[in-house]
């Protein structure tokens, strides 16, 4: 039987800094909805960048979200993190500008959020949204392929 251990907060933050993408769970029309999503860290704050659409409608309607991040190096060697919390849309321009600078440093093309369906004739995105996750619970589990049996 494989041993699965709890990750320390330090290990969780190290993995969040390393990976940069995960799966975002939210509620769409009363049902769970999970999508792949890049996230961005500024110290310990987690930010989500997207274009206005179904995701933003769903998050604005019910800001309770779950972000799952994982690193898999085979069936016996993996780490997984769950971040539960509330997402709030940034509305103050200085905050938006500061976080956009962080996002563009890590993802100059802003893809996959910005794609040809969201670009106008002059190359500008039509509508973007940035959310900050206010963490209410964070946990992580890991295994290194060792069994205690």
UniProtKB/TrEMBL annotation:
Keywords: Plasmid
UniProt xrefs under InterPro entries: Pyridox_Oxase-rel (IPR024747), Split_barrel_FMN-bd (IPR012349)
Top-level taxonomic group: Bacteria
Protein name: Pyridoxamine 5'-phosphate oxidase-related FMN-binding protein
């Amino acid at each position: 039987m494989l041993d699965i251990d709890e990750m320390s907060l330090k290990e969780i933050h190290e993995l969040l800094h390393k990976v940069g993408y995960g799966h975002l769970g939210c509620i769409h029309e009363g049902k769970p909805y999970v999508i792949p999503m890049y996230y961005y860290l500024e110290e310990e704050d987690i930010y989500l960048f997207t274009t206005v659409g179904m995701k933003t409608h769903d998050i604005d309607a019910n800001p309770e979200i779950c972000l799952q991040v994982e690193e898999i190096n085979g069936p016996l060697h993996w780490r997984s993190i769950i971040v539960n919390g509330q997402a709030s849309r940034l509305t103050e321009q200085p905050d938006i500008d500061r976080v956009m600078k962080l996002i563009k440093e890590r993802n100059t093309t802003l893809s996959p959020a910005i794609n040809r369906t969201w670009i106008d004739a002059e190359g500008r995105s039509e509508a973007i949204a940035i959310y900050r996750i206010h963490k209410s619970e964070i946990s992580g589990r890991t295994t290194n392929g060792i069994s205690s049996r």
